[in-house]
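Before we proceed, please read the two lines closing this message. Tell me what the token row says about the fold.
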Amino acid sequence: MTNLVAPHGSDILKPLIIKDKSEKDNVITQSKKLHQLKLNSAAAANAVMLAAGYFTPLEGYMNKKDALSVSENMVTTMDYSGQFPLLI
């Protein structure tokens, strides 16, 4: 299929998943020092999809300025269009 619409921001996914075992172990150890959040199933699913790169070119949750821009103008402050607010 050559007539597909190109993805915005990037032609490839940018997964945030850590594959290196020692780096992964280090992140797990450091994460135990962080505050815990209780997430509903939708927020948990968004976290998994963010880590897997499905929201490329986004690299994290939106700040207030980006979320308001997307809500009002359907574009982030970095001009990524077609987004929806990705919040915790």
Observations:
- The mean pLDDT is 79.
- The first helix runs from residue 21 to 31.
- The helical segments are 21-31, 41-52, 64-73.
